């Protein structure tokens, strides 16, 4: 059977004052067309379908448009929650969506059988078994043990995630035996693995608790469809463990990436091949950098693309220019560009903190801000992890007090 693997759509992303609605509309139409052209049987979305826990109405509408369009195209859909998704939001329509050939897994389920699903081909034949694993929250798989050190907590979480994968894989093997056909087994995940390279818009999800999951801890599935990292990549050079990456660039440092979706062919022999589908760019995005003089040339080069380009301008200048904004306005005037952000490049660690805070404070969680602040201190790893976990406990206590 042929599966299309994608992730990290971030429907509803509000990007420096701009909505991505038009891009996502075009993306849905493009993907549905690809499923027809390439005779895709089933689509897997490995987390972060939404950008926030409270997606705006237009984002929810896009979500339902996507689901209906795939149903009309006769393609199955399995959708896993990511760290940006709200469990409650995905849960509310989940049962309704089963009527539209869509399986949604918002969180680790009490009954593990819920997460072991048979994928069928367009003509209804069994094609593969999927261990449908969403983003795993520590509280889903761990009981907190008093007095555990940060390092022990990290190890317990990794062990618990490993155990979850192993348990579902064993169930999938049993299911395969019962079905009496040597069906391929696919697993999914939404996490950082060792060696994966991230980008600006990816939040560290297990900071201080689990930094990266070793590839050797995955079960022996024929293919592992991952989400969370926005740059498409094979993990550890392995053909069968992959991040599809996000289909549109979600930050300026992703602007030069060719975005992808993956066509995954599996059969009773296991993984047959993976074919990369290049996703067209629906809204050009570019970051240009230089001195004011160099920027003039760089901006007009960027403007020669024909469509309006969303620009980030990084000015390399040590001297303080109070009229920087208006100088850049003059450069960009009358060109088909829209300047979304201007920033100055500085070097020291504290300035980096200021810059990062300015860039993304509106999408950072309190945790991230604290973690960034710690980065500017010269402390050893052990202390850093301890401080982070103490900070978390305090925040959790405040949260409990609020709820009470
Ligand atoms: Mn993401």
TrEMBL record:
Chain's role: SbcCD cleaves DNA hairpin structures. These structures can inhibit DNA replication and are intermediates in certain DNA recombination reactions. The complex acts as a 3'->5' double strand exonuclease that can open hairpins. It also has a 5' single-strand endonuclease activity.
Alphabetical list of SUPFAM superfamilies matching this protein: Metallo-dependent phosphatases
Family: Belongs to the SbcD family.
Organism listed in the record: Caballeronia sordidicola
Listed name of the protein: Nuclease SbcCD subunit D
GO molecular function: 3'-5' exonuclease activity; endonuclease activity
Domain Nuclease SbcCD subunit D C-terminal: 281-377
Keyword Membrane belongs to the record: no
Superkingdom of the organism of origin: Bacteria
GO biological process, one term: DNA replication
All copies of domain Calcineurin-like phosphoesterase, residue ranges: 1-232
Keyword tags: DNA recombination, DNA replication, Endonuclease, Exonuclease, Hydrolase, Nuclease
Assembly notes: Heterodimer of SbcC and SbcD.
Keyword Transmembrane helix: no
């Amino acid at each position: 059977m042929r599966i299309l693997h994608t992730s990290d759509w971030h429907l509803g992303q509000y990007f420096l004052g701009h909505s991505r609605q038009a891009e996502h509309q075009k993306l849905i139409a493009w993907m549905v067309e690809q499923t027809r052209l390439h005779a895709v049987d089933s689509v897997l979305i490995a987390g972060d379908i939404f950008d926030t826990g409270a997606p705006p109405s237009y984002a929810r509408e896009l979500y339902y448009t996507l689901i209906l369009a795939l149903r009309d195209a006769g393609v199955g859909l399995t959708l896993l929650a990511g760290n940006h998704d709200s469990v409650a939001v995905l849960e509310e329509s989940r049962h309704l969506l089963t009527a539209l050939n869509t399986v949604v897994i918002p969180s680790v389920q009490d009954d593990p059988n819920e997460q072991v699903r048979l994928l069928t081909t367009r003509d209804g034949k069994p094609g593969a078994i999927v261990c449908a694993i969403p983003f795993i929250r520590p509280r889903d798989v761990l009981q907190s043990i008093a007095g555990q050190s940060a390092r022990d907590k990290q190890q317990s979480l990794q062990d618990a995630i490993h155990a979850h994968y192993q348990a579902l894989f064993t169930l999938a093997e049993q299911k395969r035996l019962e079905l009496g056909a040597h069906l391929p087994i696919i697993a999914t995940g939404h996490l950082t693995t060792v060696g994966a390279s991230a980008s600006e818009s990816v939040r560290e999800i297990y900071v201080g608790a689990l930094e990266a999951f070793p590839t050797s801890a995955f079960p022996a599935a024929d293919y592992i469809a991952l989400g969370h990292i926005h740059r498409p990549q094979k993990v550890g050079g392995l053909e069968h463990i992959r991040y599809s990456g996000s289909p549109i660039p979600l930050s300026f440092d992703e602007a030069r990436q060719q975005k992808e979706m993956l066509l995954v062919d599996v059969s009773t022999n296991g993984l047959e091949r993976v074919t990369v589908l290049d996703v067209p760019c629906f809204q050009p995005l570019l970051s240009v950098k230089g001195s004011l003089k160099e920027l003039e040339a760089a901006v007009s080069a960027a403007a020669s693309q024909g469509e309006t380009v969303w620009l980030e301008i990084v000015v390399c200048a040590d001297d303080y220019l109070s009229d920087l904004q208006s100088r850049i306005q003059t450069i960009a005037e009358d060109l088909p560009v829209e300047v979304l952000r201007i920033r100055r490049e500085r070097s020291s660690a504290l300035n980096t903190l200021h810059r990062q805070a300015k860039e993304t404070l509106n999408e950072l969680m309190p945790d991230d801000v604290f973690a960034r602040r710690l980065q500017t201190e010269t402390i050893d790893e052990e202390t850093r992890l301890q401080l982070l976990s103490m900070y978390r406990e305090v925040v959790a206590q405040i949260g409990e007090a609020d709820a009470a």
